[in-house]
Structure formats: structure tokens, C-alpha cells
Write a structure and sequence with these properties.
heterotrimer; A mainly alpha (282); B mainly alpha (304); C alpha/beta (195); B: 304 residues; mainly alpha; MetI-like fold; 2 domains; 77% helix; 1% strand; C: 195 residues; alpha/beta; D-Maltodextrin-Binding Protein, domain 2; two-stranded parallel ribbon; 7 helices; globular
């Protein structure tokens, strides 16, 4: 009994830690949403930005810019990460190669975004300017692809790993080629996990700022082509805050971003849960 | 008879050969996808070093140990000391980790061992959401809530070491929590069952069996959290004050490698720009050291 | 477009750079409206930014530490203050650094002990622009040169301007272009007394 009572304190502290983490999240989200939701209106989402130096106006061009850089990054990173994961999991038993690739993905995921931004600036903005248009959506998107790649790769690989070996063996036993059994059996089974990885990658791309600051150009004009400079939502928050303390626009933009992140978190959570349940049912 | 046999064998060989070529092509393409991460790292390293290394060599050790930062676009006219910026980066990181570690590890133990299923169903996605919130949103929150609070409460600029700690520790929580939780869960069941079987309580089991067994993973999580903190840019840029001086109190402004690069890249030309890439190399070196340490720590796990 | 004169090394690296002055911009020294100081000499201003003066009571104000707000290295405004006010001396490292005019202004607007510097054109009623040597920054004092802290705005081209670049420069220097600059409180080149 005495021992039990003495344990109440550490157990209460552990509960406290769990609750504190939750409270921190709620405080930040509530603060952003309470101030930002009232700003969001049809006009705010679809309107043109205020003239330079003035506050207010819509954020349509920044939403388009976010969609542009995110799509480009996904277009590049998705095939590379899914293909890479298939190779790692289905094709190579060579542990040293797998180790090297996994290690590389881990290092890539850990490189600070400002360094990836410096690289993107030099490589895409300066070096490949004739192709990317200098500071542009292409430069920003390709730079982001470097950050999306390791996240999607890791999650896709985990998903492929959980596909039971019997499924592969059954398919191969029926006379399917390796590639046939991958496309018709393995990939469909792992699809929820792979999609989760891609969505997490999208979240990373949508939320990134530092790398975008050095590569996307920051123009508030609506982009006419992917070779135009633009200002994604995250960069807009930084710019309107630091340039003229336009807290209204910053709150509204932050609220849109936070809603997007919450949606991404919920979707991935539901996907992964139904997926693990399904696999357990097999 | 003899003439037919090779014919048949040749036909089937040919068929499997086309399949083989297709299979090989696919395999080669997938291999290229696989090594894209490796290529990505080499690209980044080559470009950052090509731009920053000549400067680093020219400036020599003084770059790291002298304290005056007066960049100009040609090398001879500038003073190139980033010592206070390195100190700022380390100070901000160590403080955030010191605050974030106890909370993060406790939360991980809670998640892995104590939280009832419904609580876990809420807390796990919450930690993921915390990881997903863009750093500029954390910086925004810091700039409008934390900084004015510090200025009102303690005076000074408000933008300070303390403000950086209070924002950064939140940002590294998800890293510490998720990796620590995984490593506690990875402790073999027999450890826990054995401990409970000999009459230890749940808390005794956690304290004397589970946490020690998971310690290498927990340590790795803290080191990776450190990497996240030292590499964070936007939030720090917005709340640290960006003052290139060694802070004399936690209420004084400071600057970090990341923030200084982001702040000055806009107008930097010539030697100034090369110096910022050299700062990138220094930051990269810190990250590689931390990654190596985290690897060393988690490698010990394979022991059982 | 640049608000800092081309440096020697910029000129040596790109020998064809041509700079065309299009306007003169005053740099206002700004404080919080609650600050009872309204005038500083250039020497006092220099000493504040170099860190020799650290308390408002040293220049006749209340007893409070001076919170200096700087622009980042490379900024034309910072360069202007360093050349004109600091006479090449160095900024103290005690201040904080903000990355834009608006950021400096909004910081000073929120801190009653702060001092910073921004383009005269960007001064609004959230901050107070100080008189320097008893001369207030106005269009006229900047144009006739009595307000000392001022610099040219330059348009920079690589080689002699041609095509759209030339058309743009010509427009900027035309009466219509200069009127736009004037509306933004920049001093038109034609109004500047010969310096």
C-alpha cells in the first residue's frame, strides 16, 4: 500500500506530461484559429492582395503559389520515393546498399531547411536559371522535393515492409513475374501506407518557409507560369508580419495553414489506423 | 533430334530474355530511384562546399573564433568572425533541449505505458499535428505572444534567448516523443513480464527495466531533437532578436547560424555571400556530428 | 534598384554597371511616440548607434536603457547610417536586427525605449521621426540638403540601359515618373539643390 501511494506522484507526473503536451498544442491552435478564422472569408481566399505597404486584401495568389510549389515537389519526389522504396524492399537483399540508402535518406531528412535553401538558390536559381527562370515556382518546388523525398521514402518503405510475404509468394507461385506481382498485389496492399507517406510529404512542402525564402522569389503577383516568382502562404506570413505588421493577414493565412495541417494529420491518422486493422484481419 | 532441341530451347530462352530485359530495365530504374537520396546529398554537399569552402580556407580558424562580424562584398575589407553566432546557436539549442527532454521523455513513457487506448488515440495524432505545424507559425505565435510577454515581464527587447527556448522546445517535442515512444515499445515483452512477475510494480518496472532498456533510443531521440533545434530557422529568426553578441542574460537577444543566413542572404553579394555559405558548412558539420552521435547511440540497441 | 552606392568591388567585378540616381531619400531616425526626446545631434546619434551612449538620460531623456534596432548587414539603409552618421565607425553589437523597414518600424512602435532608422518615405504616425541638429526631416529639408541623413536611390543596369530598361529609366526620370516618387515622399531629382 505504502509503495503504491508513493507511486502516485510519478504516475501523476507522467499523466501531467501527456496532458501538458496536449495543452501546448491546443493553446497554439486555439490562438491561431480564434484570431484567424474570423479573417477567413470568400474574399480573403480569392481576393487580390493589398497594394504594397498596405494591410488587408486577399491571399489567392499565395494559395496558388503554395499549390504550385507543392505539386512540383510531389511530382518529382513521389515516383523517386515510391520507386526507391520498392527497390529497397523488393529487389535488393544487399544489406550494405540498403544501409547506405537508408542512411542517406536519414541524413537528407536531417539537413536543416536553410541549407537545402542555400543549395536550391545556387543550383536551381543561379546555375539552372535558363531552365527554371531563376527565382520561381520551379526552383522552389524542386528544392522542396529534396525535403519531401526522404519522408515519403521512409514511410513507403515501412508500408511495403508490412505486406505479408505469403502474398508475394502466392502471386509468384501463380506464375506472375516479379513486376506483375508488385503492381497487382504488393502495391495495392501497401497503398494506404504509401499515400500516407506522400501526404506527410505534402505537409512538409506546404509548411516549409526557409528554403522557399531563398528560392521562390516572393512576388505577390498571381503566377502566370511556373517560371514566375511567387510567394507561398508560409512566406507571406513572414513577409506581412515583418514588413508591415499586418497581423490580420498573417492570422488568416496561418489559420488556413493550420486547418490544412490538421486535415493532413487526421487523414493520415485514419488511413494508418484502418490500414493496420486491415492487415491484422488478413 | 539434335537440331530441334536447341531450337526449342532457343525460343524459350528468347522469350525469357525479353522478359528479362524488361525486368532488368525496371530494376535499373528502381535502383536509380533508390539512389536518388544518395545523389541528393552529394549534390547539396558539392554545391554548398564549392561556394563556401574557398572562403572558409581563406578566412581560416579566425572565422570560427573571432567575434567581429562586419561583412563586405570583398574579402579584404570585411571582418569575419562568427564566434558569437556559433555560441548563440549552441545556447539556444542546449536550452531548448534541456526544457524539452524531461517533458518529451515523460510524455513518451506515458504514451507507451500508461495512457489508456482512448487517450492514446487522441495524443498520438496531436503529437503528429505538433510536428506538422509550420515553423513560421510557431515564430508568429512567439512574436505576438511570447516576445511581448517577456518584454512586459522582464524588460529589455523581448526578443531573446528565453523566447527562442520557449518556442524551440515545443518544436522539438514531437521528435523526442515519437522516437522515445518507439524505443520504449521496442523493449522485448519478456523484460516487462519478468519484472512484473517478480513482484515489481508498474512504476518500478518502468523506472528500472523499461527506461534503462530503451535508454539508447531515448538518447538518440534527444540528439535528433538537438539537430532539429540547431537547424531551425524561421521561428528563431522571428524571436531571437538577431544580435551578434554573446548574450549576458537569457533576456538578451542573440543570433544563430540559421537565422543569420536567412537574414543576410537577401542583400549578400561577393565575399559576404560566400561567408554565408561557409556558415552553412559550419552548420552542416554540427548536424553531421549530431547525426553520427545519434547513430552511435541507437546502434547499441541491437545488443539484444 | 539600390539604396547604397556601388562598392569598389562591385564595380571591379561588373565594370559595366551604370547607376542612375532617380530620387533622394531621407533616412529618418525614429523613436516611440511616447519618448520625450525630439531632437538629437549627429554626434549623439552616432554615439547611440556605436554604443557610447546607452541610456536615454545621457541625451536628456528619462532613465531607461536605449534599445537599438538595426537593419541587417547588406541593407542600404544600414549602409547609409554607417557612412553618414557613424562616419564609417561600427555599430555596437548590443542592438537587435530586423530584416525590413516595416519590421524596424513596428518594433519601435511597440517599445517605448527603442530607436531605429528607416526611409523617410516609410515614416507613419506609429513612430516619431527625430529632428537632427534641430532640422526636421521634411521634403524641403531633404531637397535643400539641410537635413543631413539622406542618400540617393539608384537604378542599376549592366552596361548602358537599352529596351525596356531604358524606357523604364526614362519614365522614372520624366515628370510623370517623378510625380509618383514625390507622392511617395521621395525627393524628385529635379528638386534637389546641387550638392
Amino acid at each position: 500500500m505504502e509503495a503504491k501511494r508513493r507511486e502516485l506522484v510519478p504516475l501523476a507526473l507522467l499523466w501531467g506530461a501527456g496532458i501538458a503536451t496536449l495543452v501546448i498544442l491546443i493553446v497554439i491552435l486555439a490562438y491561431i484559429l480564434a484570431n484567424g478564422l474570423p479573417v477567413i472569408s470568400w474574399h480573403f481566399l480569392t481576393g487580390e492582395p493589398a497594394l504594397w505597404g498596405q494591410t488587408g486584401g486577399g491571399i489567392y495568389s499565395t494559395i496558388v503559389a503554395t499549390l504550385a510549389v507543392t505539386s512540383i515537389s510531389l511530382l518529382v519526389a513521389a515516383p523517386l520515393s515510391v520507386g526507391g522504396a520498392i527497390y529497397l524492399n523488393e529487389y535488393t537483399k544487399e544489406t550494405s546498399l540498403r544501409m547506405v540508402i537508408r542512411q542517406a535518406a536519414e541524413i537528407l531528412a536531417g539537413i536543416p531547411s536553410i541549407i537545402v535553401g542555400l543549395f536550391g538558390f545556387l543550383f536551381f536559381v543561379i546555375y539552372l536559371a535558363p531552365f527554371t527562370g531563376g527565382w520561381s515556382m520551379i526552383s522552389g518546388g524542386l528544392t522542396l522535393a529534396f525535403m519531401v523525398l526522404p519522408i515519403s521514402l521512409r514511410t513507403s518503405e515501412e508500408a511495403l515492409k508490412t505486406v505479408p510475404a505469403e502474398l508475394r509468394e502466392g502471386s509468384l507461385g501463380l506464375g506472375a513475374t516479379k513486376w506483375q506481382s508488385i503492381t497487382t498485389v504488393v502495391l495495392p496492399t501497401a497503398l494506404p501506407g504509401i499515400i500516407t507517406g506522400l501526404i506527410l510529404g505534402v505537409g512538409r512542402a506546404v509548411g516549409e518557409t526557409a528554403a522557399i525564402l531563398l528560392t521562390a522569389g516572393g512576388s505577390l503577383n498571381l503566377i502566370q507560369s511556373l517560371r514566375d516568382p511567387g510567394r507561398p502562404m508560409t512566406l507571406n506570413i513572414y513577409n506581412v508580419l515583418t514588413e508591415y505588421r499586418d497581423t490580420t493577414t498573417a492570422y488568416g493565412t496561418a489559420a488556413v495553414l493550420v486547418i490544412a495541417i490538421l486535415a493532413i494529420t487526421l487523414i493520415t491518422d485514419l488511413l494508418m489506423n484502418s490500414y493496420t486493422k486491415k492487415l491484422k484481419g488478413l | 533430334m539434335i537440331s530441334i532441341k536447341p531450337n526449342r530451347a532457343g525460343r524459350s530462352l528468347r522469350r525469357s530474355a525479353t522478359q528479362d530485359i524488361k525486368g532488368r530495365t525496371i530494376e535499373l530504374l528502381l535502383l536509380l530511384c533508390g539512389i536518388s537520396s544518395v545523389c541528393a546529398i552529394f549534390l547539396i554537399i558539392i554545391f554548398i562546399f564549392a561556394e563556401g569552402l574557398p572562403f572558409l580556407i581563406q578566412a581560416g580558424p579566425n572565422f570560427l573564433i573571432s567575434s567581429v562580424w562586419q561583412p563586405t562584398d570583398n574579402f579584404a575589407d570585411g571582418l569575419w568572425g562568427i564566434f558569437p553566432i556559433i555560441i548563440g546557436s549552441l545556447l539556444v539549442t542546449v536550452g531548448a533541449v534541456a526544457i524539452g527532454t524531461p517533458l518529451g521523455v515523460a510524455c513518451a513513457i506515458f504514451l507507451a505505458e500508461i495512457a489508456p487506448a482512448p487517450v492514446r488515440r487522441i495524443l498520438v495524432p496531436s503529437v503528429n499535428a505538433l510536428a506538422g505545424v509550420p515553423s513560421v507559425v510557431y515564430g508568429f505565435f512567439g512574436l505576438l505572444v511570447v516576445v511581448p510577454w517577456i518584454r512586459g515581464q522582464f524588460g529589455g527587447f523581448g526578443t531573446s534567448v528565453l523566447a527562442s527556448w520557449l518556442i524551440l522546445f515545443i518544436m522539438i517535442l514531437p521528435t523526442i516523443i515519437s522516437i522515445s515512444t518507439d524505443s520504449i515499445r521496442a523493449v522485448p515483452k519478456e523484460f516487462k513480464e519478468g519484472s512484473l512477475a517478480i513482484g515489481a510494480t508498474h512504476w518500478q518496472t518502468i523506472r528500472s527495466v523499461l527506461v534503462p532498456a530503451a535508454s539508447s533510443g531515448i538518447i538518440a531521440s534527444v540528439i535528433l531533437g538537438m539537430g532539429r533545434a540547431i537547424g531551425e530557422t524561421m521561428a528563431v529568426l522571428m524571436v531571437a532578436g538577431n544580435s551578434i553578441t554573446i548574450p549576458n542574460s537569457i533576456f538578451a537577444p542573440t543570433s544563430t547560424l540559421t537565422a543569420q543566413i536567412a537574414l543576410e542572404m537577401g542583400y549578400a553579394t561577393g565575399a559576404h555571400r560566400e561567408a554565408l555559405f561557409a556558415m552553412g558548412i559550419v552548420l552542416f558539420a554540427f548536424i553531421m556530428i549530431l547525426t553520427g552521435l545519434a547513430n552511435l547511440a541507437s546502434r547499441r540497441r541491437i545488443a539484444y | 534598384m539600390s539604396s547604397a552606392n556601388l562598392s569598389a568591388s562591385q564595380k571591379s567585378q561588373y565594370p559595366n554597371l551604370k547607376a542612375v540616381p532617380i530620387a533622394v531619400d531621407g533616412i529618418a531616425i525614429i523613436v516611440n511616440p511616447q519618448n520625450n526626446i525630439s531632437n538629437l545631434t549627429t554626434n549623439q546619434t552616432r554615439d547611440i548607434f556605436t554604443g557610447n551612449i546607452t541610456n536615454w538620460n545621457q541625451v536628456g531623456g528619462s532613465d531607461a536603457k536605449i534599445n537599438v534596432v538595426n537593419r541587417e548587414e547588406g541593407s542600404g539603409t544600414r549602409d547609409g547610417i554607417q557612412k553618414i552618421v557613424l562616419k564609417g565607425g561600427n555599430f555596437s553589437t548590443g542592438g537587435i536586427t530586423q530584416s525590413s523597414t516595416g519590421a524596424v518600424r513596428s518594433y519601435v512602435a511597440g517599445d517605448s525605449n527603442a530607436i531605429g532608422y528607416i526611409s523617410f518615405a516609410e515614416v507613419d504616425n506609429s513612430v516619431k521621426a527625430l529632428n537632427i541638429n534641430s532640422v526636421a526631416p521634411t521634403y524641403d529639408t531633404i531637397a535643400n540638403g539641410t537635413y543631413p541623413v539622406q542618400r540617393y536611390f539608384l537604378l542599376v543596369t549592366n552596361g548602358d540601359p537599352t529596351g525596356n530598361a531604358k524606357a523604364f529609366i526614362d519614365f522614372t526620370l520624366s515628370p510623370a515618373g517623378q510625380a509618383i516618387l514625390k507622392a511617395d515622399k521621395e525627393v524628385a531629382i529635379s528638386d534637389v539643390s546641387a550638392k
